[in-house]
Amino acid sequence: MEKIIDEILKKISTSEKIILSAHTNPDADAIGSCLAFALKIKSMGKTPIVALEQFDERFKILPGQEFVVHDNIEDIEGDLFISLDCATEARLGKAEIFIKKYFTINIDHHHGNTNFGNINYIIPDFSSTSEMVYNILKKTGINKDIASAIYAGIIGDTGGLRHPCTTIETMEAVTELFKLDIPFSKIYNSVMGEKSVAAHKLLGRAIEKSVFLHNGKVLYSGITKKDIEEFNGTYKDLDMIVSELISVRGVKIAFFIYEKEEGSFKVSFRAKDEYNVCAVANVFGGGGHIKAAGCTISLPFDEVIEKIKEEIDKLF
Ligand code: AMP
Ligand code: MN
Ligand code: MN
């Protein structure tokens, strides 16, 4: 592993304009790992560009926003591409084009990463890509801003240091980040807790519509485009719903679906105990982690529910 880290750092030091990106609908880990790297690259006197899909305002508290570009990313030019927290080429969305154009460094912790980079630094089941970024950057020096971005990513993917993927090494990394006097309370409250008014209302709607199956072991819900429009929201207001569903006592598997694009539904799965939802997501061409996975299905709403139910029935 040390050798790969050295290779990554060497490649960065010999490049000037470095494009960074992560999976579509980026979460705290995707955004945090990109921003941490961008801040480091900037401090080395180079130019970072973070090409990401639009993300929720609660992540705007993180330093490094000045490097973020959401629009016309196909026009961005650089001389190195770093993909973070993304398992496959397709999950990069528009940023997929950079793989073919530039030397690509692929840094990720997802099962089933397709090793699409020229350098692939993949540790499946690691707490977060942000902790991997910590391990890369700690050799070269981390400042308060870099530490803040890394902290956001780590707490995002570990559910605030509570999921089983949290290790002693994760805690040690966080200890080191705390030593840099990061505003941890502010970051935690914003990244983990804050939601828009629309998100609050849509959560209420999703809970109201939720349905139990298998004697309360499965709980699912869905939000339609109509629901989103009613509360003047966007799909970015929905990403906290599935964790509310899995938090219900007795529930072992939760899934949540919403219509991201016309006729195409995004499904989020969460699991507890021995249940593996990555396997379910795989059936539909998706993936992720054993206890948190997702996929996209292009069928009518009711059929999406039926197909998923059929797969989940097999687990009981
Ligand atoms: P989400 O439910 O979107 O928070 O995603 C949970 C996990 O599943 C994350 O690790 C994602 O990277 C992964 N995931 C979500 N959607 C997809 C997809 N369409 N294909 C592959 N992996 C996905
Ligand atoms: Mn992610
Ligand atoms: Mn991640």
Q: What does this protein structure show overall?
A:
The chain is α/β, with parallel strands linked by helices. It has two domains: 2-193, inorganic pyrophosphatase (n-terminal core) (Alpha-Beta Complex); 197-313, Diaminopimelate Epimerase, Chain A, domain 1 (Roll). The chain has twelve helices and twelve strands. The strands form two sheets. The chain has a six-stranded parallel β-sheet with strand order 3-2-1-4-5-6. It has a six-stranded mixed β-sheet with strand order 7-8-9-10-12-11. The relative contact order is 0.10. The model has no long low-confidence stretch (mean pLDDT 96). Bound molecules: adenosine monophosphate (AMP) and manganese (II) ion (2 copies). Adenosine monophosphate (AMP) binds next to strand 11 and strand 12.
Main sheet strand line-up: 3-2-1-4-5-6
Summarize model confidence as the mean pLDDT: 96
Q: Sheet with the most strands?
A: 6 strands, parallel
Relative helix content: 25-40%
What is the CATH homologous superfamily assignment of the largest domain?
inorganic pyrophosphatase (n-terminal core)
Radius of gyration: 19 Å
| Highest-level CATH class of the largest domain | Alpha Beta
Structural class: alpha/beta
| Strand residue content | 15-25%
Shape descriptor reads: globular
Structure ligands: adenosine monophosphate, manganese (II) ion
Compressed to H and E, one letter per element, the order equals: HEHEEEHEEHHHHHEEHHEEHEEH
> What's the CATH topology label of the largest domain?
inorganic pyrophosphatase (n-terminal core)
Q: In the CATH hierarchy, what is the architecture of the largest domain at level 2?
A: Alpha-Beta Complex
Count up the helices.
Answer: 12
Distance between the termini: 40 Å
**Count of domain modules:** 2
Strand element count: 12
Q: Which regions are unreliable across 5 or more consecutive residues at pLDDT < 50?
A: none
